[in-house]
Amino acid sequence: MIGTNKQLIALASICLIITAVFLFELGLFISRENYLQQIAVLKSNHEAYLSQSSLTIDKLGEELESKEQQLNELSQNKEELNSQVDQLSQQIAGLSTSSSVYPFAIPSTGTVGSQVSTYLDENNGYYHYGVDFWTTTSNGGAINTHRGNPVFSACDGVVESFQTGNGGVTIRCDLIPSFYNVPAHKVFTYYGHMANAVTKEQFIYVKIGQRVRKGQFIGYQGDLSMFTPDMRNVHLHFSVFSGFKEADGTQDPCKYIGGNCQKVGEFFVNESR
Fold it and tell me: Which of 44, 81, 176, 254 matches a 20 to 30 Å C-alpha distance to 128?
């Protein structure tokens, strides 16, 4: 009897141990499942967050691209407006001469006194890169005072340089408005022989760097010449060129002031007051 009880107690103990182990394992299984479920929920939430963030980034990218396109359009509009403003500025600058088809004023009153005074006349291999306005054609153009008609700036611009040995002054003109039909719109004007051939007195009354307006008085015609020292006809040599000297980009002055610069006897009248 006693042996039977011991067996029953042992069997019961084994059952309890098995039950405990089963319950322990079951607890671990339940905890693991719960853990995996939590992980799955976190993963799902993370994926949803990433998906939403991706949509937000895409939307921000589209908005940024739209803003960049708007900026490009505004930049293009600005360039167009600047171009229109430049054109209007040129038109405003040319209002004082818009009644004429020529952008420059005739710089001095006088007559093309001889063939060598015409534009591009060739004399012993020397080309005349301007036109001469004589104060008078009587007595070979000679005047006792060596000083002739007043000279005026043909354009708005800045006094660039002097050529004292020739009584010369160069004026760099402002850009000519585009609506004028001229060969070059960025040019220099040269005024020569504005000095006394005997005393070498300069008849030029402007300074280097000085800004001048079209029609502004700058001096008088004279007879000093470094090319033909014995010349005594009082006149203005006037030339227009687009380079840095007369022979560099020489232009027919009459394309800018009107008249015929290749005709002997052509008479020019300056209308400045």
Answer: 176
